[in-house]
Automatic annotation (TrEMBL), chains A, B:
Coiled coil (UniProt feature): none
Domain of life: Bacteria
Top-level taxonomy: Bacteria, Bacillati, Actinomycetota, Actinomycetes, Propionibacteriales
NCBIfam families: recR
Zinc finger (C4-type) boundaries: 56-71
Source organism (scientific name): Nocardioides fonticola
UniProt-recorded name of the protein: Recombination protein RecR
Domain Toprim: 79-174
PROSITE patterns in UniProt: RECR, TOPRIM
Gene label: recR
Annotated function: May play a role in DNA repair. It seems to be involved in an RecBC-independent recombinational process of DNA repair. It may act with RecF and RecO.
Entry similarity comment: Belongs to the RecR family.
UniProt keyword annotations, A-Z: DNA damage, DNA recombination, DNA repair, Metal-binding, Zinc, Zinc-finger
Amino acid sequence: MYEGVVQDLIDELGRLPGVGPKSAQRIAFHLLQADPADVRRLADVLIEVKQRVKFCSICFNVSEEEQCRICRDPRRDPTVLCVVEEYKDVVAIERTREFKGRYHVLGGAISPIDGIGPDQLRIRELLPRLADGTVVEVILATDPNLEGEATATYLTRMLRTLEVRVSRLASGLPVGGDLEYADEVTLGRAFAGRRSAE
Amino acid sequence: MYEGVVQDLIDELGRLPGVGPKSAQRIAFHLLQADPADVRRLADVLIEVKQRVKFCSICFNVSEEEQCRICRDPRRDPTVLCVVEEYKDVVAIERTREFKGRYHVLGGAISPIDGIGPDQLRIRELLPRLADGTVVEVILATDPNLEGEATATYLTRMLRTLEVRVSRLASGLPVGGDLEYADEVTLGRAFAGRRSAE
């Protein structure tokens, strides 16, 4: 329907997550009329990000260096390791400023339906990090959904034989939420995990 | 919060229309893990589209040639000219297969609030196209909103002195819609423009 390269652009944009055919069209038309320098900048940063962004050789976090900022930081506690699914989880946890330890980024979660088993994740690479006894606690901070829970269960079993404390993030009511809107699983967990009132 | 170039990518993506901060993040993370060849293809098509896509020298439609497909097509009726705001309107009208004439793409609509007056649009370029008397009808197919109506009104006045019929697209109830859900302006127009039943 569109002139060749315009249709190519719409097709490429439509492959991005959350960009449907209508949005792809809208973005393409915007780009057609945009300043060529702006479009060039987007194209350049796309290429640059693939050239420069690597994964940290220790924790597999996103990094522009051989080792990521957190692994390079001597102030981070080497005795606590937080296992997350993705880079974005690292960013979310860093934002809380609650966690001072280090990370291990799995690169996803176990999901048989998507063909992702333990071998497709950075699970094997976790064991050498626990070998010298520096790490005393592993916090499993996978997503509180089916895949995340399956991954945490798998890791819990795997780490059972090691001399390391394994913990999970607390489940419960989200702060600022309404009790009546909580789903029954969350509400059930909030009951099961109740604390003594101060 | 993110490693330098990742944040740059999120920023650039966030400038696209309809892409909020959350979507920009989501797309950026997708691209981080995507096949470098796929990302390269998107970057290439972005550059290509700005290099190859020009605007037709006659009607200002999007075109990879000096003149667009429609202006080059001798089967298109040169006596009817349809004035639209944007390239996407050309595509929408072409899809109906109802219109066999030619186009004039204004490049937007009059919108004082956005600083767009007649001089920012391809309005001046419309007059020479009507000079030799080939065109007998100009169909104003601007959007049925405030800016589109203002633009149509402006053009109607401008063309009044010329020997050319000026028409507007019909307003009324959308086909397949429910009368009760039509807004009052649309319903009012549908009454005003009522046809005799066959």
